[in-house]
Amino acid sequence: MSLDLIIPAPSATDEARRQIEICNACRYCEGFCAVFPAMTRQKSFADGDLTQLANLCHNCRGCYYACQYTAPHEFALNIPAALAEVRVESWERLARPQALARLFQTHGVAMAGLLVVALAVFFWALGALRPVEGAGFYAHLAHNTLVAIFAPAFVLPLLLIALSVRDYWREVGGGRVRLAHLLRAFDSAARMKNLSGGHGEGCNFEKGDRFSDRRRVFHQLMMYGFLLCFASTSSATLMHYLLGLEAPYALISVPKLLGVPGGLMMAVGAVGLGWLKLRADRSLGAARVWGGEMAFVLLLGAVALTGLGLYVATGSALVGPLLAVHLSTVMVLFLLMPFSKMVHGFYRLAALVAEAGQPAPSSANE
Amino acid sequence: MKDWPETFDLAVVGGGNAALCAAITAAEAGASVLILEGAPKTYRGGNSRHTRNFRCMHKGPMFPLTDAYEEEEYLHDLMLVTKGKTDEGLARMAIRSSEECLPWMMAHGVRFQPSLSGTLSLSRTNAFFLGGGKALVNAYYNTAEDLGVKVAYDAQVTHVHREGDRITHLDTEIAGRPVTVKARAFVLASGGFQADIDWLARAWGPSARNFLIRGTPYNRGVVLRDMLDQGAESVGDPTQCHAVAIDGRAPKYDGGIVTRLDCVPFSIVLNTNGERFYNEGEDVWPKRYAIWGRLVAAQPDQVGFALIDAKSIDLFMPSVFPPVKADTIEELADKMGLDPQAVRATVDGFNAACRPGKFHPTELDGLATEGLDVPKTNWARPLDTPPYYGYQLRPGVTFTYLGLKVDAHAQVHSAEGSIRNLWAAGEIMAGSILGQGYLAGFGMTIGTVFGRIAGKEAAAHVA
């Protein structure tokens, strides 16, 4: 047995620390995003500092292509990958239960498996719990049954995420949150400022060292599409309970006006993000979770497409099976919020808020 | 030997900033262009990869530059560092042209940002590249590619064939295979010779073998040597190189910017005998870092040791490698391979010579030692607060001064007159203007100005 077998490989955090300390002596990348100015606040980096930097990183990859110290240079810097590893590790570490996080972050197959289970359950439910009366898809599954299934499936994962983000806040030493910090963070997320490349021409995701805004565009289509769909469902719930207006709704109605464009945006976003992911260099991200990330993009696309399909199929015999498929995808999306790429949105926002609460980076020696 | 299948209008030797500016300018004028970059693609761009800014004349505020920086002040700054060793005509031309370069650079893909942290003093004079020099190099390669410029990587030119007042072709080795490259015009932009340690040792003396090379290992001066052997006119002191004091643990080549150490003004610096040898507090570091390369080079084994205490550790930019750390001076000396007793004696002598007063890290505070043979005239505070920290310093060579003499058209000359289809740009001819010293960001100015001139002249020659 040789000695090197018992020397543990450096952890993702140790490797990121090694790389960040080299970066911090260079600083050429300061203009790309928030990570590099944030780094200049210190000379040495605690684990929590690295967790924060990692979650602040949007993986735009500008710093990789601009770096003099990438392999084959002996410093072998690959900051986008190093931070991606720390980021995914932090999501796994802070999630509860952790075993689920490790499973679903990494394995698309696991996500597909859960989808199959959900499908089976919903097809069974549609047969066994078919209501006596009801219009549209409520003819297949009563509104109360839907709420009884989905309310906990939505609220419980959110609670788990809230606990994790609280732990994150402690780990990175976040301070008191003020309205100004929230506004700054939401502004940054709303415009995806950190994917602008610092010059507004975008990032280096799928075209090597050339800049492209595609990732920012597709991500925003997805994000705003998702929010529109969420608003659509929320508005329908309010209309149902407060106004007594029950689905199905006409095309000229709040839920449809929000949901149809939202669904289309999500579908385009999912196709775009999946396509970019196929073209991008896997070695500049957390390569081990590629499958889980891709499955997540496809899941979002499936949620959108089956939702739109349900609308198109109104009144036909396809509503029943499509409803089962759509509800299954939504259910899986909800259940996996704490354990999939979905969770990045919560940590990213937390990182942006924490950064907004820090003093402006000052120069070291002037 | 195999022939490259086509005859190009222009063959550019080198693949850094000057070469790319020449290639892009010529290609835009309609010339067919081949770039012969000696490095593999991952290391393309020569020393331009390591740069970060461009010194630019401007009559008023102009993004990313503040205020104004006019010709006379720029020339004055150049005269200060070169001590007059410059060709004023060429220098003025380069300075004047720098202003129109900035928009040209942006139009060809280079992006700028406000000056980097720790460099605020340069926000008026120097335009910083967003992402640094490698980002600039990437942008130019993309622009060149879009213009149809061909690039051969790992392409080393071994001989430039001259017949009378013309260059006929180049002998090259591309990925290890001999290839003849034919063109109607040629631009040499292949840098200096600082990566050829044997040449450095012949010029400077054997101690040069202990120098570190801050930039690319590919600037071996093969083409420069070949041209000088063929009687091309030269300029610049053949024995001199520009060297700064850097972290002694830096890689032999290509350590670049991160190996800088800004701690000297807050340190005492010892040689291997444990003795101080120069006033560490003579002036602010941006005005002194360049002389420390030579100072360290003159010490035994070409090495120095900067010692600081806990009071000063946060007063300078972070170092790429952590400092050696110890709780006592003796322990620190021991860890750094110095004689603890000798270092103790030096530190005690220094501490006793320190005087009370107001310490101000960012300006000349006049806090000086009294009664020492080697004084420290600013920032002199006793080393008395553990933990103590130490850095090893070595000379890091940035560039060499010997180069090809060019005229205002960037044309190369022999004793018999100009070589009609040969131009030079960048470090290979920078000695024409920069005879001594260095001015931050001026190398990129010379490269950009003369690269564009060379490309324009070459394209006009073949048109």
Automatic annotation (TrEMBL), chain A:
The chain crosses the membrane at residues 103-126, 146-169, 221-243, 258-278, 290-312, 318-339. InterPro entries: Citrate_utilization_prot_B, NarG-like_sf. This is Tricarballylate utilization 4Fe-4S protein TcuB. Keywords: Membrane, Transmembrane, Transmembrane helix. It comes from Gemmobacter lutimaris. NCBIfam families: CitB (TIGR02484).
TrEMBL record, chain B:
Keywords: FAD, Flavoprotein, Oxidoreductase. It comes from the Bacteria. Residues 9-435 form the FAD-dependent oxidoreductase 2 FAD-binding domain. Its cofactor is FAD. Pfam families: FAD_binding_2. InterPro entries: CobZ, FAD-dep_OxRdtase_2_FAD-bd, FAD-oxidoreductase_2, FAD/NAD-bd_sf, Succ_DH/fumarate_Rdtase_cat_sf. SUPFAM superfamilies: FAD/NAD(P)-binding domain, Succinate dehydrogenase/fumarate reductase flavoprotein, catalytic domain. One of its GO terms (molecular function) is oxidoreductase activity. PANTHER family: FAD-DEPENDENT OXIDOREDUCTASE 2 FAD BINDING DOMAIN-CONTAINING PROTEIN, FUMARATE REDUCTASE. This is FAD-dependent tricarballylate dehydrogenase TcuA.
